[in-house]
């Protein structure tokens, strides 16, 4: 086991890049060696975030200036399509943890053996369920799941894997804070357009649908899975709340679900006490996915409500958890924070 992991962050000035910098400052076994920027190299990270407490490597460098021999891991925090463009320039011995969408489908496609170098990093489920072939976890790069997908799959996969709920007729309604869209400068993300309103978008065509369906399908012998999914932007900075409507397996009850979770351990996936309704406020600033399960008025249907901080559990925190798993560190290393409240 390596004692210290040396790290580069690409896309360091974006939301997820910045969150990685902030969180890695608390990690005892990781050191940021360089911050890489496509548009702002030569400047200082404190030009963008004056409150950041970074003693070394505060200068942003361009990709071509990376000293690879000093590194173990590179986190890619780039917009969709950008990771694929630079992947071939990264030496094979460097571990890549990609936060974008670019390698998620490859990581979920078990049949394409030549692409097996990517693992889908749904961290809390990774060791127990997703990657039964442990060698692959240790020998592969990691494709970090999408933020909506994390809020949905984290509680759903254990239930499916243990045949507690059915795979058909799953309906999901998710609400996300605006930081989920990154720092892109577009009119519909302006305060004046977001505040005081809720906006559904990409109805039945969001990119996470395919990701969620492929992952669920792995747990029912590659049976085709179809979900209904409606994402919505709400006027808060951070956080995702997902309402997941799903049918119980024949003969199963909510009690069976609670019993299962009371006996299982997931470092950052926690079921709440009976009747406690999850709220985004409960997880802001943390790597937790909190959820609870409620009976619907429709017989044999339940409602799972789950919450995450999209920039932590949905991005930077889960990426660090994946790095911890990969290097055999305690999964919780550098990730134990209490929520910011109110
Ligand atoms: N925001 C979330 O909640 C969240 C959650 C999960 C996953 N993700 C994924 O993580 C990735 C990063 O998201 P983010 O929210 O951090 O995005 P962001 O705030 O928009 O930052 C992306 C950064 O990438 C860099 N970049 C490099 N090439 C670029 C290009 N051609 N166009 C624009 N920017 C470019 C920019 O920094 P420099 O110019 O300094 O390099 C930019 O700041 C995305 O793929 C996103 O889908 C985001």
Q: How would you describe what is shown here?
A:
- The strands form two sheets. The protein has a seven-stranded parallel β-sheet with strand order 3-2-1-4-5-7-6. Strands 9-10-8-11-14-13-12 form a seven-stranded mixed β-sheet.
- The longest helix is centred in the middle third of the chain and has 15 residues.
- The mean pLDDT is 92.
- It is 27% helix and 21% strand.
- It has two domains: 156 residues, Rossmann fold; 163 residues, Dihydrodipicolinate Reductase, domain 2.
- The N and C termini lie far apart (40 Å).
- The protein is globular.
- By secondary structure, the protein is α/β, with parallel strands linked by helices.
- NADP nicotinamide-adenine-dinucleotide phosphate binds next to helix 1 and helix 11.
Which helices and strands appear, and what pairs or packs with what?
Blueprint: E1 5-10, H1 15-24, E2 30-36, H2 45-48, E3 60-61, E4 73-76, H3 82-86, E5 95-98, H4 104-108, E6 118-120, H5 123-130, H6 134-139, E7 141-143, H7 147-161, E8 170-176, H8 191-194, E9 199-200, H9 208-217, E10 227-233, E11 240-247, H10 254-263, E12 269-271, E13 289-295, E14 301-308, H11 312-326
The structure holds NADP nicotinamide-adenine-dinucleotide phosphate.
- CATH class annotation of the largest domain: Alpha Beta
Given the helix and strand composition, which structural class is it?
A: alpha/beta
Q: Low-confidence segments, ≥5 residues, pLDDT <50?
A: none
Name given to the CATH homologous superfamily of the largest domain: Dihydrodipicolinate Reductase, domain 2
Work out the helicity level.
Answer: 25-40%
Bound molecules: NADP nicotinamide-adenine-dinucleotide phosphate
C-alpha Rg (nearest Å): 20 Å
Q: Could you give the order of strands across the largest sheet?
A: 3-2-1-4-5-7-6
What is the general shape? globular
Average of per-residue pLDDT values:
92
Gross CATH architecture of the largest domain: 2-Layer Sandwich
Beta-strand percentage range: 15-25%
Q: How many beta strands in the DSSP annotation?
A: 14
- Give, in order, the helices and strands: EHEHEEHEHEHHEHEHEHEEHEEEH
**Integer tally of domains:** 2
Tally of individual helices = 11
**CATH topology assignment of the largest domain:** Dihydrodipicolinate Reductase, domain 2
Tell me about the biggest sheet? Answer: 7 strands, parallel
Query: What separation lies between the terminal Cα atoms?
Result: 40 Å
């Amino acid at each position: 086991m390596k004692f210290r992991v040396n790290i580069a962050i690409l896309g360091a000035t974006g939301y997820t890049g910045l969150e990685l910098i902030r969180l890695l400052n608390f990690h005892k076994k990781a050191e940021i060696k360089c911050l890489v920027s496509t548009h702002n190299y030569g400047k200082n990270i404190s030009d963008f975030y004056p409150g950041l407490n970074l003693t070394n490597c505060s200068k942003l460098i361009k990709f071509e200036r990376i000293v690879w021999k000093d590194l173990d891991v590179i986190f890619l925090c780039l917009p969709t399509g950008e990771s694929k463009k630079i992947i071939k320039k990264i030496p094979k011995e460097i571990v890549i943890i990609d936060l974008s969408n670019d390698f998620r489908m490859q990581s979920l496609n078990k049949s394409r053996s030549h692409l097996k170098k990517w693992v889908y990093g749904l961290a809390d489920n990774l060791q127990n369920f997703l990657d039964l072939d442990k060698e692959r976890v240790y020998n592969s790069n990691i494709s970090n799941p999408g933020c909506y997908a994390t809020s949905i799959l984290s509680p759903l996969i254990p239930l499916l894997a243990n045949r507690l709920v059915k795979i058909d007729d799953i309906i999901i309604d998710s609400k996300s804070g605006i930081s989920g869209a990154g720092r892109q400068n577009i009119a519909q993300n302006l305060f004046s357009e977001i505040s005081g309103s809720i906006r559904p978008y990409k109805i039945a065509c969001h990119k996470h649908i395919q990701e969620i369906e492929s992952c669920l399908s792995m747990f029912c012998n590659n049976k085709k899975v179809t979900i209904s999914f409606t994402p919505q932007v709400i006027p808060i900075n951070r956080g995702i709340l997902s309402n997941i409507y799903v049918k119980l397996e024949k003969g199963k009850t909510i009690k069976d679900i609670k019993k299962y979770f009371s006996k299982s351990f997931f470092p950052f996936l926690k079921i709440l006490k009976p009747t406690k309704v999850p709220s985004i406020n409960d997880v802001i600033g943390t790597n937790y996915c909190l959820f609870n399960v409620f009976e619907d008025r429709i017989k044999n249907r339940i409602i799972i409500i789950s919450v995450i901080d999209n920039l932590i559990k949905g991005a930077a925190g889960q990426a660090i958890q994946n790095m911890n798993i990969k290097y055999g560190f305690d999964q919780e290393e550098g990730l134990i924070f209490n929520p910011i409240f109110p």
